[in-house]
Amino acid sequence: MNSNQIIALISKIRRNSSAFLENELNKAGLEGIISSHGAILGALYRGQGKLKMKEIADIINKDKSTVTYLVKSLCNSGLITRQKGVNDSRETYILLTEKGWEMEGKFNCISEKLITTAFVGFTEPEKQTLLDLLKKMNSNFIE
After folding, report:
1. Which of 3, 47, 82, 88 is positioned for an S-S bond with 51, CB 3.0–4.6 A?
2. Domains in the chain, start-ordered, CATH in brackets?
């Protein structure tokens, strides 16, 4: 296999998984939510509904300006709110709203469907090998 094909296939998988997620979000009545929003919401669900902006950026591996843009969109949809730090006003916390919490079940169902679809026909050892190899490849780009 040509090395260029591997990189192209990784890119294609990313595009296909994003399209899959957006289709599932639309089918669940969550129009306007994109896969990048899902990454933020997932981080907040795992973080008990409150995280610092920087924590979200680190968890989803996006730069702060990208997260700021995505957070603004989620605030406009009423799923999250912003809150300045009590002790340090330079810190910004992102909190799930009641509306954001209400969609957790749908979100988890869609996430599970994505994982199940992605790994049809994979054994646990194959999944582990794939993860190990992708981590190894990723480390080549980290300074």
Report:
1. 47
2. 3-112 (1.10.10.10)
